[in-house]
């Protein structure tokens, strides 16, 4: 996706723009262009992506020292 966006939108990139800014600027187009591909992705691949995200957020929460704080969230937020 990112390589496709880089190639397709290279002319729209302004001097000094970071990669993140370019991705944010084109996020709607990226999602629209790959929506069908993402929906038709095999279940196994979706599961692998989900597991990778879970591992990444677990590392992030451990690094931030916010593991074990669910009780505080539950007492503050009523769903």
3D structure, described in words:
The protein is mostly helical. It has one domain (2-64). It is built from five helices and no strands. The mean pLDDT is 85.
Could you provide a short overview of the structure?
By secondary structure, the chain is mainly alpha-helical. The chain has helices at residues 2-8, 19-25, 27-39, 43-64, 70-76. The chain is 71% helix and 0% strand.
Question: What brief labels describe this structure?
Answer:
single chain; 79 residues; mainly alpha
Order of helices and strands: HHHHH
What distance separates the N and C termini?
35 Å
Shape: extended
Low-pLDDT stretches are: none
Tally the beta strands: 0
Rg, alpha carbons = 18 Å
Count of all domains: 1
Please bin the fraction of helical residues: over 70%
Helix/strand class: mainly alpha
Mean pLDDT: 85
Percent strand equals under 5%
Main sheet? Answer: none
Specify the number of helices: 5
């Amino acid at each position: 996706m990112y390589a496709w966006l880089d190639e397709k939108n290279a002319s729209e990139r302004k001097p000094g723009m970071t990669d993140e800014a370019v991705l944010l600027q084109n996020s709607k187009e990226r999602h629209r262009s790959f929506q069908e591909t993402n929906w038709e992705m095999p279940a196994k691949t979706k599961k692998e992506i989900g597991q990778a995200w879970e591992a990444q957020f677990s590392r992030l929460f451990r690094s931030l020292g916010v593991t074990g704080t669910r009780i505080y969230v539950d007492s503050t937020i009523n769903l």
